[in-house]
Amino acid sequence: MGSILALVLVFAGIVILFKTVRMVPQGYEWTVERFGKYTQTLTPGLHFLFPIVYGVGRKVNMMEQVLEVPSQDVITKDNAVVKVDGIVFFQVLDAAKAAYEVATLEVAILNLVMTNIRTAIGSMDLDESLSKRDEINAKVLVAVDQATHPWGIKVNRIELKDIAPPRDLVESMARQMKAEREKRANILEAEGFRQAAILKAEGEKQSVILEAEGNREAAFRAAEARERQAEAEAKATQLVSDAISSGNVQAINYFVAQKYIEAFKSLAEAPNQKFVMMPMESAGVIGSLAGIAELTKETLGKKAGG
Amino acid sequence: MRWDVFAWAAIALLLFAAEAMAPGAFMLWLGFAAVVVFAIVLLFSGIPVLAQAAIFVVLSFVSIQVYRRWFRKREKPSDQPALNRRTAALVGRVVPLERAIVDGYGRVQIADAFWEVTGPQLPAGAQVRVTGADGMTLRVEAA
């Protein structure tokens, strides 16, 4: 009888001791309740609680924790449906608030994050939401952080892991990109051809201009030559005319006769010329020969007379 | 040889072993209580079992109180006092204000997280030093 009582006593004593001496591990904080009402928070280490009156309420994890945000369908501003998932890093800073201000902390955080992601992406076009991920992260982080302050937690980081547009949209985006590249290629090619044609035409123009310029120069020079020739002829004529005016008109007949004889001589010397046609006016020329004779006679006569 | 002497010796050893297996710093003190009961039982024969148990329970509480009063004062302080206390770890940091302090409240960014700060009126971009924290809000002063 006594030994049973002793066993019960030892057992009760050990149980009460276990309830009195509480060791809070590092990384956790325990809330203490006095008859069910929160009184204080136990930090890591060994603590003594007055048995039965005080009890441990919640054991709160004070380490930074990671929550997976499950994939959800979000509609962008331009009505594309994208699948979005992410991760949230949060840490409890106030164990009592985290324990008693919110019923299921993780569910509450997840729902807040999900609705805020929907809000942030819903205000953006698909292209924007794909390229401005950092902006979305920051936006959601600020909103969620502020909303969770009353729960004694700090949301340190929210990261969208994947923003996936539907498959057909991805395909058409790829097609669009390809078309864009092809367009650029075609434009570049056309520009190349245009440039080449322009260069070629310019070359041709240049060559034509140069040629024309050459011709012009040549014409100028030819004209100049003719002018000079005419001048010379005029001068020669002048000289002859002067000579005639100061001498006898018959003198001219001398030149004509000389030229005629020369021409006749070359005609006669030509190898295949057996047959000579006499000009119709040869009689005139002969006449001029007579003139020469007369001229000579006159000159000689003058000399003799003088 | 009496069985109760052996029993208390065994209980004491078991408690020491338990402390060694799962250190919680209080099985040890139960063990010391068991050692004292063992000594008493060894010296004075004829103590009723119920009285032995009562002595053990009382001594257990006493030994833990002794530990609490006496030895805890000599405990080595942690070399990481700010472990798991994020706001305490931020004290002394100098950071630029992300949002101006207007009506006592502004915002800074430390690592990826945004912290609400309270302090004197300062424009955005001004350097501030964290001096402490009120719950989730950091106290800052111009640095």
UniProtKB/TrEMBL annotation, chain A:
It is a single-pass membrane protein. Its main location: membrane. Signal peptide: none annotated. Keywords: Coiled coil, Membrane, Transmembrane, Transmembrane helix. It holds the Pfam family Band_7. It is found in: Membrane. SMART domains: PHB. Residues 215-242 form a coiled coil. Residues 19-177 form the Band domain. GO terms for cellular component: plasma membrane; side of membrane. Belongs to the band 7/mec-2 family. This is Protein QmcA. It comes from Pseudoluteimonas lycopersici. The lineage of its organism: Bacteria, Pseudomonadati, Pseudomonadota, Gammaproteobacteria, Lysobacterales.
From TrEMBL, chain B:
Coiled coil: none annotated. It is found in: Membrane. The keyword Signal does not apply. Keywords: Membrane, Transmembrane, Transmembrane helix. Residues 88-141 form the NfeD-like C-terminal domain. Pfam families: NfeD. The chain crosses the membrane at residues 30-63. GO terms for cellular component: plasma membrane. It is a multi-pass membrane protein. It comes from the Bacteria. InterPro entries: Membrane_assoc_protease, NA-bd_OB-fold, NfeD-like_C. PANTHER family: INNER MEMBRANE PROTEIN YBBJ. This is NfeD family protein. It comes from Pseudoluteimonas lycopersici.
